[in-house]
Amino acid sequence: MGDGWGMRKMWIGAGVAAAGGTGFVMLLVVGVYLVGGDSAGGSGGEGKKLAKGSVPAAYQPLVQEAGSLCPAINPALLAAQLYQESGFDPKAQSPAAAQGIAQFIPGTWAVHGVDGDGDGDRDVWDPNDAIPSAASYDCSLASYVKSVPGDPTENMLAAYNAGPDAVIRYQGVPPYAETQNYVKTITTLAESFAEPETRVDPSEQAAGAIAYAQKKLGTLYLWGGNGTPEQGGRFDCSGLTKAAYESVGIELPRVANDQYNAGAHPGRDELLPGDLVFFSDDLTNSRAIRHVGIYVGGGYMIDAPRTGAVIRFDPIDTPDYFGATRVTEDGAKALPTTV
């Protein structure tokens, strides 16, 4: 369940592969090296719009509205918290009895749960109540530490992790490794739920990831394949992208829909070689993504398409094209190990 939202609430609540494709790709790879740089981070206290489909359509209006409740939060930040804790699963329950999409423990829910949909009850299992409650809880924490200097969003997240008294005592984010990591994790992860406001900087590791994928061209697809010797060096789609970025020191999750959250999302006209490109039968929900490839430029990707096919170049402009992610090391590190 991510970093244990509920536990930290206890303080207060009780075919193109031939024809010279390799040379074409390597020219693009050189370009990535020449313009490579780190993507910008930030605490995200401003009101950011949600990236297309980054939140399941059923919850997007709730997250958009609740995430605008106070200046210390925004929709992308709230989405990052919900994803970190439950993967947007309204039935999630942790061993510590944290419940629902926002992972409230019962004692905290009793104090901070709100009737978000006005139906006369407060149901921790109902996202219509739990999502507004999560935002309300964040804003309560922000209000409690509002006199503390520094970034109000970071102070709120630190209060959520370590308790507001610690934030007040240290007059900012406490010098606890767990708390400092939590603040960085959520603010970084929020970037993957936000619609980019400016051009997204390229990743220096992108060229190496492409070079790795190129070496696998012609390899037969294997469902569940991670490229191990026992599997004959074969991959499925997300196994290939995971291995490609692992070759340059970036650890991605195993499945495609989680890889989507490893960085910000450039638009179709902003794609650069090395971006991950995603495909889905539901273009309103990143959790429904079913395929991923590595963009190489010119409207093509390298991907492991399906059983019976080989790793190859494929066009990306198909009706099921969902979007893209510019992978960053910080973005990948911010992803929860389980959702």
Characterise this structure.
This protein has helices spanning 5-8, 10-13, 21-35, 60-66, 75-86, 106-112, 127-144, 152-162, 164-170, 177-190, 206-215, 237-246, 256-259, 329-334; strands at residues 263-264, 276-279, 291-297, 300-303, 312-315, 321-327. The chain has 339 residues and is an alpha+beta fold. It has a six-stranded antiparallel sheet. The longest helix is centred in the middle third of the chain and has 18 residues, at 127-144. The radius of gyration is 21 Å and the shape is elongated. The N and C termini lie close together (6 Å).
Quick overview of this protein structure:
This protein is an alpha+beta fold. It has helices at residues 5-8, 10-13, 21-35, 60-66, 75-86, 106-112, 127-144, 152-162, 164-170, 177-190, 206-215, 237-246, 256-259, 329-334; strands at 263-264, 276-279, 291-297, 300-303, 312-315, 321-327. The protein has 14 helices and six strands.
